[in-house]
Amino acid sequence: MKVVFLDIDGTLVDYNGNVPESTKKAILQAKANGHKMVLCTGRSRFQIPKKLWDLGMDGVIAGAGAFVEVFDSAAEKGISATDETVPNDSKITTTGTILCQMVIDAEHAKSSYDYLEGNGVLYCYQGEDGIVLNQRSYDGMMEIDRLNGMSEEMMESLHGVIHLTETPWDVPNLEKIIFYDAPFTLEQVKADMLPYFDTVALSLSGTEGVCGEIGLNNIHKATGIKLFLEHVGVGREDSIAIGDGPNDLQMMEYAGVGVAMGNAKEEVKKLADMVTTDVTDDGIYHAFEKLGLL
Questions:
Q1: Would you say 48 and 203 are in contact if contact means Cβ atoms under 8 Å apart?
Q2: Distance separating alpha carbons of residues 192 and 27, to the nearest angstrom
Q3: Cα-based distances in Å from 24 to 20, 110, 245, 268, 277
Q4: In this structure, are residues 131 and 163 in contact, taking their beta carbons and an 8 Å threshold?
Q5: Cross-strand bridge partners of residue 199
Q6: Helical (H) or strand (E) element with 150
Q7: Residue 258 in 3-state DSSP?
Q8: Helix (H, G, I), strand (E, B) or coil at 9
Q9: 95: three-class secondary structure by DSSP
Q10: Considering the domain 106-216, what is its CATH architecture?
């Protein structure tokens, strides 16, 4: 039995939010063969669409490692939504065991706000059920998303409940920060935000260069995988990680086998043990086939 950790954007779904039929087939067949499937994403829990839960996931690592949950019953996760995305006004409840839920402390919520706002950066915090931001960042980020061709469905899924406030640092349980259009390089933001935070580039198309995600330092997808595997009693040699972006590097290095999508960044492909085809060219199915999961 293998435990497969799957990134979402650019891995399970294309950049229009669609899940290829071959991907659905591969996951369901691999599960029928006794393997476990775990979402491992930079998205927060609320940003995961129902169509992915419907594939019968065995757990989730969200917020790039900040939140880790093992489902006690993959068949029943308490989701009552009937359309393709969970309604923005409803929280997903599960029958799972939460192993980790890390949030930004009050001091650094405020200091990060002062830094981002003071430098005119567009940003939002990922909270428990949606994004938290002020009107200036909301207007700017919505314009960028539309210019990048993001569909309304994708935007709704990613944003969840929109909490507009001029004091975003006051909202409890902030998990991570997404930023756009910094006036300096990603490397500069990373240096400025250390040592409490770490900063990586976004994997979404059209966000290269001055956009990224800021999370808790030393908390990443690999730390989430370690917790999950220890809980279910599976060695890392029996784990597989599949991804395409900068926040997938640690998990691919940690897992027994690291697989890069054909559309992955070059730095991800270089680290991978195997490179499959693009997300839109049956990448997951081909990977599962080569790994003997089908």
A1: no
A2: 41
A3: 7, 42, 21, 24, 16
A4: yes
A5: 214
A6: none
A7: strand
A8: strand
A9: coil
A10: 2-Layer Sandwich (3.30)
Compute the distance between CA of residue 283 and CA of residue 215 in angstroms, rounded to an integer: 28
Residue 13 tokens read as: 């779904």
Higher pLDDT: 144 or 171? It is 171
- Distance between alpha carbon 39 and the CA centroid of its chain, in Å? 8
Q: What pLDDT sits at residue 86?
A: 35
With tokens 């908390």, the residue in question is 219
With 70 as the cut, is the pLDDT of residue 90 above it?
no
HSE-CB of 72 using CA atoms within 13 angstroms: 8
Residue 80 has pLDDT above 60, yes or no: no
Q: What is the side-by-side strand order in the sheet with 97-101?
A: 97-101, 67-70, 59-62, 36-40, 3-6, 239-243, 257-260, 274-275
Q: At what angle do helices 106-118 and 186-193 cross, to 10 degrees?
A: 150
Alpha helices in the chain (DSSP H): 21-32, 50-53, 106-118, 135-147, 152-159, 186-193, 221-232, 249-254, 266-271, 283-290
What tokens does 86 get? Answer: 């969970």
- Helices vs strands, H then E, count in the chain: 10, 14
List the chain domain ranges.
Answer: 3-102+220-290, 106-216
CATH number for the domain formed by residue range(s) 3-102+220-290: 3.40.50.1000
Specify the amino acid at residue 15: Y
Residue keyed to tokens 């399970």: 12
Token duo for residue 17: 């939010």
pLDDT band of residue 210 (cuts 50, 70, 90) is low
Average pLDDT, the chain: 89
Instruction: Give the whole-angstrom CA distance, residue 278 versus residue 240.
Output: 18
73 versus 103: which is more confidently predicted?
103
Higher pLDDT among residues 249 and 87, named by residue: 249
Residue 173 backbone zone (phi > 0: left; psi -120 to 50: alpha; other: beta): left
